[in-house]
Amino acid sequence: MNPRAARDSARPSSAAAGGSGAPQASLPAPPRAVDLPPAHTALICVALPGLVISTDQGQLTGRGLEGFYRAGRRMLSRCQVRVAGREPLAVQARMLAADRARFVGTLRASADGGPDPDVVVERTRHADGTERITLRSAATRTLRLPVEVALGTDFAELSSVAAGRAGPELPASVHDSGLRWSCAAGHSAVTADPPPTDALASAGLLRWEFELPPGGTRSVELRVRPDGAGAGRAVGRGATSPFAEARAAGDDSRVQALLHSCVEDLRALLVRDPGHPSDTHLAAGAPWRCGLAPAEALAAARMTLPLGTRLAAGTLRTLARTQLAGPRSGLIPGPRRDAGPHLPPGCTATEATLLFPALLAEARRWGLAAQEVEELLPTAERCLEWLRTAVGDSTYLPDSYPGGPLRCETQAHAHRAALLGADLLDAHGRPGGAGLRQWAQALRTAFREDFWFEDRGGGRPAAARAPDGRLVPHLGASTAHLLDTGLLGAGATAPGLLDKVQTEQLARLLGGPAMDSGWGLRSLGVKEAAYNPFGHRAGAVRVQESAVAVAGLAAAGYEKEASSLLHGVLAAAETFGHRLPEMYAGEQRAQGSAPLPHPAACRPAATAAAAGVLLLTSLAGIRPDAPAGTVTLRPVRSAPLGEIGLTGLRIGGAPFSVRVSRLGLAMVEEAAEGLQLGV
Q1: Which domains are delineated in the chain?
Q2: CA–CA dist 550, 544 (Å, integer)
Q3: How many helices (H) and strands (E) does the chain have?
Q4: Is residue 264 a contact partner of residue 113, using CB atoms and an 8 Å limit?
Q5: CB of 634 within 8 A of CB of 555?
Q6: Which of 152, 197, 251, 487 matches a 20 to 30 Å C-alpha distance to 600?
Q7: pLDDT tens-digit profile of 288-327?
């Protein structure tokens, strides 16, 4: 499925303006905005390429987004259960794991049983395309219950469903203990175990007659399959998962639930490169973006390096095969991304191209095998050569099109790529490192002067510089990337683009009430023009940027500001059942309030789940240098969550565990033999 098709197809496009003096009647009617179907309250089970979306009622009625999907196409849109001619009364719906949900309903089957229900109907629904329906009797006598399941499908693509363009239900045929649907786009089948006593294709019905003794149970398992074939195994399950069995424990009980949910969501979003099945990467998120978004896949892989380097290697190999040749040689292609009300859309290809060498350099520090680094190094070199070519004789990396602004975060990504890239080149005896460092030094010197907007409050980094040199001074979360300096050798961090005084001022601003919503970092300050608490780049809290800010502030020594943002995101995560959405509204936190969900947010989302890993591991300040056999710990001394222990992480492919005490002291509890604690 097109990774952006579902969400973008429902976005309004810009209306064309008529010429000067054109009569009003000749102007084209503005396009009608199409709202996405509500998904923020849905129970979304994910094990890509499988996906199932349900409401809290449990019944799949064929309305909205409901249904079993595979590879972006709806295999089953309707699955309605009736027992003794009635639908069970829904009493509970909850997620059991990232890939399955449980629905419980009750009904009264005995005519003389009083007002109490005596049959419980439990449905366990899996993203792999299975649903188990269990009837449990609490009656005092044997019950004979007719059970029927009404099925249907339209075989529509998710993008069409989201845009309200799903077609009518297809006619069914009886097939292999169930029903089958066929159309030009393919086939879908549902088989049942035990086989139904009756199947009515014209109505899409499967029927059973069950006898339940007192306290007895009977079950039916439905299997939804494309072409009637096997479902295949989700990438993130079992031995195929690239993630370590990491766990968190400590004084704050939320850390254990958050890390568990984040790792579950990451596994659920794993997909294979179709042409190279051994390579896996993360899809951007469900339900809207179940495909590859290069910049986000690289960013998520970078934040999950403490869980192992296998995801980073698979993501890097997958994207290396997309690298362009010819006039734009070295660029890793990516779509445009809305940048909010103050700037034109940016190109994620630039971000992805700069993230590639940075991720490779840091994966090497976390223990990516030397052979794999050598294999990927030529692609990283071409990325760095693209950077040199794009900068040319200038100091700054321009936007992806002529006349575009110089973006603050683009310079931050470029600066980090240059320094980490130089470190990588030097480590492998490749030329070019000195030139990259020289350019990075020139960028730092110029940036501190050219990108600083002076005001009465002490100034701020500008979000961008216009081609005419005018500063775009609005305060947004993109400035948090200025604190993300990356990991160099011996556990050191790269120098930042801002000087010490400017970094202190930025920390004060990010920790102030204009940016800190109490639930995390707003994408745009509340005092800025066009602020919108639901604007995904204009005021909403984006979890990735909040985590980047927490890690950067903590590394720079601004622990008070980092702790406030950390507590805000943890509080938000708790209200979302520890399954973080990619964003939520930036409304100010108040006593007894909860963050407002963003109706277009993906949940689960790769960057949000990976951000949870970054939030917790940043408390220990782990700075590995696997090639040198050392690891340095720089914990948050204020211990904002009390004592915390992280077990099952990976450095150099071996288990690594660390504990930070209530006094902010870190101690290694498990590590590879020979790994030394650095100073």
Answers
A1: 43-226 (2.70.98.40), 238-617 (1.50.10.10)
A2: 10
A3: 13, 35
A4: no
A5: yes
A6: 152
A7: 999 999 999 999 999 999 999 999 999 999 999 999 998 8
